[in-house]
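Can't paste images in this forum, so I'm doing it all in text. The chain is below; anyone willing to post the predicted structure tokens underneath?
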Amino acid sequence: MKSLWQARPNPLAWWWALLTLASSINIGLWVVLYQQFHTQPAGGSTSQVELMLFLCAAYVFGCAFRSFLPRADVQRICLFDTWLSSVVIGRSVATVAEVSFAAQWASSSTSWVE
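Text version of the structure:
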């Protein structure tokens, strides 16, 4: 009988652990940026900084949500069977995150032109 330490590692558990670790680091970095730029805007106007922080938050937390509750929509596979793992919720969160990312790019490219 093998002890717990001699058991073969579960690659799915390692993959999920790395996803959640990366998402946690991203959330931590966003909090640091929020604290730094929310109080004292560097460069652009206050409304521009607020917009970028909001769009960045939507992207970071949307990606974190999909990392904490991973799923494959077409194959109908999810790591955790919960109502948050539904296709509608997952695709809605992904859409908001992707649109926020695109809006962030569009907003930053127009600020360089001005």
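The chain is about 70% helix and 5% strand. Strands lie at 71-72, 77-78.
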